[in-house]
Amino acid sequence: MKFKEIVLTGDRPTGPLHLGHYVGSLLNRIALQDEYEQYIMIADLQALTDNADNPVKVRDNVIEVMLDYLSVGIDPLKTTIFVQSMIPEIAELTILYLNLVTVNRLQRNPTVKAEMQSKSYGESVPAGFLMYPVSQAADITIVKGTLVPVGEDQLPMIEQTNELVRSFNRTYGKDIFPETKALASKVGRLPGLDGKAKMGKSLGNAIFLSDDEQTLKKKVMSMFTDPGHLRVEDPGQVEGNMVFEYLDVFDTNKVKVAELKHQYRQGGLGDVKLKMYLFEVLNELLTPIRTKRAELAKNREAVLQILLSGTKKVRKVAMETMNQVRDVMHLNYE
Amino acid sequence: MKFKEIVLTGDRPTGPLHLGHYVGSLLNRIALQDEYEQYIMIADLQALTDNADNPVKVRDNVIEVMLDYLSVGIDPLKTTIFVQSMIPEIAELTILYLNLVTVNRLQRNPTVKAEMQSKSYGESVPAGFLMYPVSQAADITIVKGTLVPVGEDQLPMIEQTNELVRSFNRTYGKDIFPETKALASKVGRLPGLDGKAKMGKSLGNAIFLSDDEQTLKKKVMSMFTDPGHLRVEDPGQVEGNMVFEYLDVFDTNKVKVAELKHQYRQGGLGDVKLKMYLFEVLNELLTPIRTKRAELAKNREAVLQILLSGTKKVRKVAMETMNQVRDVMHLNYE
User: Fold this and answer.
1) Residues 109 to 168 of A: which have CB under 8 A from any B CB?
2) Across the beta sheet with B37-42, what order do the strands follow?
3) Which of B88, B127, B308 is the closest to A92 by Cβ?
4) pLDDT at A150
5) Stronger pLDDT, B122 or A277, i.e. the higher one
6) Which candidate from B58, B131, B304 shows the least CB-CB separation from A98?
7) pLDDT (tens digit, 9 = 90+) per residue, A244-283?
8) Which of A98, A104, A171 sits opposite B123 (nearest CB)?
9) Which of B179, B133, B163, B140 minimizes the C-alpha distance to B8?
10) Contact residues, chain A, for B331 at CB < 8 Å
11) Once rounded to an integer, what is the mean pLDDT over residues A60-85?
12) Element of type H or E holding B9
C-alpha cells in the first residue's frame, strides 16, 4: 500500500504554551502546514494519565492551548486540530494494540523509564502511564500519520509505534498502517529563564505566549546572566548567560547581537540595559500574538467550535481506519 | 445514588459451549433472566487477548456461542445478549480506569497470576492480558452491573472492579458507578470426561451442546470410570467414577442412581451398560437443545440480527454511562 505523508503532532493540555514550545514545535508546525496534511492533537486523555485527580485543569487548558495555536498562526484551514478524548476509535485501537506488546517491552521503553523516574512513582506506576506509548501509537496510526516531529528523547516512542505497526500488519496479513518517521525539529531545546536545561510549564522558568507585557518584563529582568558580573564596567560572560542564549534564538539582527556580546565581554554593558533590549525583542515578537490571543479569547465558544469541527473531521478518518481494522480482524459484524 | 440490580455475565467465544457451561452457568442464567435485568456479553475482544493471531476462530465462535445460548433457553426477550467489540465505550472506560490502578496492583491479581502461569507466558505477558481485569471492570460497569455470577477463582476480579469503582467515584466526586456483588453459582465445576478437575473447550474432555448423538455416545463410552473394574462381575468403585459423577448431576431420577451405585459396588453392572444409561440421560437432555440448535443454525443471519439488536440496546446504555463519565471528568466538550 502507498501512503501519503501525514504529520501528526500534539500537546498535553496541562498548561499554556511558552516560548520553548514556540521555537521547539509551533514554528515548525506553521511551516509544516504549508507542506503536508497536518493533524494536531490536544491530548487530554494522555494529560489525565498523570492528572487523573485534576480534570478541571486539563479541561481549562484545552482552550488555552487552542488560543495559543491560533494566535501564533496555526491555521485551522491548513491544520486539523482535534481533541483526543472525542475520538473513541483511539481507545479501541489502543486496546487492540495492547495484545501485540508485552508488559516487559513497555517497561523497557527508555522514555517511559526516564519519565517514571522523574515523576518518582516508585512502585506505584499507574497502568495508564506504562501504556501510554501504546496509546500514542494509536494516536498516530488512527490518522495514518507518517511524520511525527519529536525531540531525541521521544525516538523510542516512534520505535514502539513502528513495532506495533509491523506486528499488526503481519498478524492480520494486510498493510493497514504505514510506518512512521521521526521529524527531528530544527531548533534545539530552549533553556529556562533560570538557566536550567529545559523551559517547563510547571518549573516556574517559562515565558508564556499569553504573558502580558508587564509579566514579560518582570520575567526577562529575573533571567540568569553571569553571577560574576556585578558592576556595569566589569567584563561579563556570554556563555551560559540566558539573555544571550535567547538573543541568539530570537533576535534576527545578528550583527547587533555580536556587538552586544563584544561589549558585554569587554565590560561596560549592564545587565539591566541588556535585558531591556531582550525585552524589546521578545515584546515585538509576542505583541501581535498577544493581541490576536486577546481578540480570540473574547469568543471562546468560537474557538471551541474550531476544535470541534477539526475533531469531527478526524472522527471520520478514524472511523474509516477502524473499519479497515475491523475488516482484517474479523470484527465486522454488520 | 440508588442502583437497581443488574446481572452482567458472559463468555469468551473461543469454542462452542459444553456441559460444564450448561450446569455451571447457563442454567443459572436461565433462572436469573426471570428475576433480574440480565446482560450477557460475548467477549470477543477479551478472547483476542490470547488469540490475537487467530481472529477467525473468535469470529466463528461468536455465532456458535449465540446458537448455544438460544438453544438452551436463554431468551433474547428477557436477556440482552451483546458483543463486546461493538461497544467502543468499554474501550474508552478501560483507558480511563487504567489511570486509577497501578501496574503492581494488576500484577498481584491472583486470578491473572494463576492464568499467566497456566499459559506459561514467562516473561512475555501481553500487556492486554495483564490489563484484562480493568477491561472486565469496564464491561461490568458500563451497564452498571451489580451482580456478576462467578466461580470462586474469579472473586479477585470482582474485588478489582470494586476498587476501580470506589476510586473513580471518589476521584470524580460522584457515585456514578455501583459496587458489584459476586453471585456464587449453585453448582460446582463439572469434571472432564477424563476425570480431570475441569471440563475445558480445548482440553479434549468436553461434551459440547452441539455434539451430535453419535459423538455424544462415543464420548460417553470413553469416560473415565474405575480402572480396576475389569469384568462385569467385579465390584466397582463409584467415587471418582465420572459416569456416576455425571449421573449425580444430570439424572433427575435419584432413586435409580442410588440403585445403580449399589449394583456397581456389589459387582454385576458392566461399564458399557452403565454408560449406555448415562448416554440416554444426557441424550434426553441434549436432544431438544440439539434440535433447536439445528433449526436456528439454518438461519445464522437471523441469529446475528438478535445479537446486533441486543448490542444496539447496550450501546444506548453504554453511551449514557459514558456521558455521565464525561460530565464528571470534564470531558464534555459539546
Assistant:
1) 123-131, 134-135
2) B79-83, B37-42, B6-11, B147-150, B181-184
3) B88
4) 86
5) A277
6) B131
7) 999 999 999 999 999 999 999 999 999 999 999 999 999 9
8) A104
9) B140
10) 44, 55, 59, 85
11) 97
12) strand B6-11
Residue B219 pLDDT more than 70?
A: yes
**Contact residues for B94 (Cβ-Cβ < 8 A; gap 6+):** A91, A95, B131, B134, B135, B137, B138
Q: Is B43 in CB contact (< 8 Å) with chain A?
A: no
Q: Please state the rounded mean pLDDT for residues B253-266.
A: 96
CB A97 within 8 A of CB A134: yes
Residue B308: count other Cβ atoms within 10 Å of its Cβ.
Answer: 17
Q: What is the DSSP letter of A18?
A: B
Chain B residues whose beta carbon lies within 8 Å of the beta carbon of residue A323:
none
Cβ-defined contact of B86 to A172 (cutoff 8 Å): no
User: Which DSSP string do the residues of B48-104 spell out, in sequence order?
Assistant: HHTTTT-HHHHHHHHHHHHHHHHHHT--TTTEEEEEGGG-HHHHHHHHHHGGGSBHH
Say whether residue B44 is in contact with chain A using an 8 A CB cutoff.
yes
Q: Tell me whether residues A88 and B92 touch, CB distance under 8 A.
A: yes
Give pLDDT, residue B226: 92
Could you give all domains of chain B from N- to C-terminal order, each with its CATH number?
A: 6-191+300-328 (3.40.50.620), 213-294 (1.10.240.10)
pLDDT at A43: 96
Q: With contact defined as beta carbons under 8 Å apart, do A86 and A309 qualify? A: no
The secondary structure of B137-154 as a DSSP string is: HHHHHHTT--EEEE-GGG
Higher pLDDT, B120 or B102: B102
Confidence label for B198 from pLDDT (cuts 50, 70 and 90): confident
Q: What is the rounded distance in angstroms from the CA atom of residue A116 to the CA atom of residue A120?
A: 6
Query: Higher-confidence residue: B120 or B280?
Result: B280
According to DSSP, the β-strands at A79-83 and A37-42 are parallel
Chain B contact set for A83 (CB, 8 A): 333
Cell 529575573 belongs to residue: A222
Amino acid making up residue A245 = E
Give the predicted TM-score (pTM) of the model.
Answer: 0.92
Which A residues, 170 through 229, put their C-beta within 8 Å of a C-beta on chain B?
171-172
Report the alpha-carbon distance of residue B318 to residue B326 in Å, rounded: 12
Find chain A residues with C-beta within 8 A of B330's C-beta: 55-56, 58-59
- Does residue B186 have a pLDDT over 70? no
What digits encode the pLDDT tens for the residues B65-75? Answer: 999 999 999 99
Distance from CA of A188 to the nearest CA of B (A): 32
CA-angle at B293, arms to B287 and B294, nearest 5°: 90
| CB-based contact B135 A94, cutoff 8 Å | no
Q: How many angstroms separate the CA of residue A172 from the nearest CA in chain B?
A: 7
- Give the C-alpha separation, A244 to A115, whole Å: 30
A95/B95 CB distance under 8 A:
yes
Report chain A residues whose CB lies below 8 A from the CB of B100: 52, 126, 128
Give the range among A111-120, A302-311, B12-21 with minimum mean pLDDT.
Answer: A111-120
CA-nearest residue to B326 within chain A is A85
β-strand partners of A149: A183
Mean pLDDT of B171-195: 87
